[in-house]
Design a protein that fits this description.
The chain is mainly beta and about 375 residues long.
Length: about 375
């Protein structure tokens, strides 16, 4: 599929941070402007991010160039204003189903009946309905299980009578309920790496109204990780999650969507927000920690879980941002070390004559001959 890069003007590349105290307190940078931006997926295998605006999708390269994605006649054309969260396949094998999710395919929540998940090919063609999730009146979260605790399936959340349904979908589109009694949840879901304390491998989900962060195990059991010291309430509380990947703290970026929302106390700017990994390092964040951002103001903390869980403030200064969707990451590519040049084989060094084995043997033989001759001479003298 042929795509055309959309240039971003220099003014958009250098927008001021959301706070004026960048030197004292880390703050999000307004990196790019995207109309209706509300979610991200990826990175894809080529390093680009999938950017979900309303109603368009884009691919963004590390330099900030945007290319329309799935925009042709056979592409993806949702209703304007919909917040259909996305997940990009990292290419995972589902053992029980005996199949694989194809790398770089995009899975999008279908927000109209029959509620479910649609699939887009890696090139952007719309492959249509992938799965239908029953027993829900809405869908509000999606994430891949990259650890294998859920057999590498695609996980989706939806509302039903004030509760949340969690379903797992394999690579053939077969849906299995995990639980139908979780608290009201929504936003950027994430699966915890196995090293995340007792919650490793669990699906982690935020409750923006109550303010708690929950873990849902593969058997459907629910546990509270903690309730961060962040604002709570609809359109205000914890909204988005993401786990710091291996390698990020050596250089990379964190991304979050700031959607323009008219008439809201946090009106947003329709910007892609980003934060350098150096700010995480300065705050004491470690690889494998959970990042949690609020919808109102885009406050950001990290959660570190080992024997117990604790929160680490990262971005605390209040802003007018209106955060949505997943927290995603890109890792800087490190140039490989130069290939060592071939070195000439060292020339053989001639050994000194005294160290040559043959010379040593000859010297002993001569010495022995001299001794023998001397003895013979002495014996002859005695006979006379």
């Amino acid at each position: 599929m042929r795509t055309v890069l959309v240039g971003i003007v220099a003014a958009d590349m250098a927008l001021a941070p959301l706070t004026a105290s960048a030197a004292a307190d880390p703050s999000w940078e307004q990196w790019q402007t995207v109309a209706g931006v509300f979610d991200f997926g990826g990175p894809r295998s080529d390093g680009s991010l999938l950017v979900a605006g309303s109603p368009n999708l884009y691919l963004a390269d590390p330099a900030g160039n945007l290319a329309p994605f799935a925009s042709g006649p056979g592409g993806y054309h949702p209703a304007p204003g919909a917040e259909a969260y996305v997940a990009v396949s990292p290419g995972l094998h589902v053992g029980a189903a005996g199949c694989d999710f194809i790398q770089d395919e995009t899975f999008v929540l279908r927000l109209q009946p029959p509620f479910g998940i649609d699939r887009l090919a890696a090139t952007g063609e719309n492959a249509g309905s992938f799965a239908t999730v029953s027993g829900v009146t809405s869908l509000n979260g999606i994430a891949f299980d990259s650890t294998g605790a859920f057999d590498h399936r695609l996980l989706a959340s939806g509302g039903s009578g004030g509760k949340t349904v969690i379903a797992a979908v394999d690579c053939r589109g077969t849906v299995q309920p995990i639980t139908s009694s979780a608290p009201a949840l929504e936003g950027g879901l994430a699966v915890a790496p196995l090293g995340f304390g007792v919650f490793g491998g669990d699906l982690i989900a935020p409750d923006e109204v109550g303010g708690s962060i929950y873990a849902i195990a593969p058997d459907g059991k629910l546990a509270t990780i903690l309730k961060p010291s962040l604002p709570t309430g609809g359109d205000i509380g914890v909204e988005s999650l993401g786990f710091v990947p291996t390698g990020l703290l050596r250089g990379g970026m964190v991304y979050y969507a700031d959607r323009k929302t008219q008439g809201n106390p946090h009106p947003g700017t329709d910007s892609v927000l980003r934060l350098p990994s150096s700010d995480l390092v300065a705050a004491g964040v470690q690889e494998g920690d959970l990042l949690v951002a609020t919808e109102g103001g885009a406050a950001l903390i990290a959660v570190h879980c080992a024997d117990s869980c604790r929160e680490i403030p990262v971005v605390s200064a209040p802003t007018t941002a209106h955060g949505e969707g997943h927290i995603v990451f890109t890792i800087n590519k490190i140039a490989p070390s130069p290939t060592p040049s071939a070195k000439a084989s060292p020339k053989p060094v001639a050994q000194p004559a005294s160290s040559s084995p043959n010379v040593g043997i000859l010297a002993l033989a001569i010495a022995a001959g001299v001794v023998v001759s001397a003895i013979r001479f002495f014996l002859r003298r005695r006979r006379r």
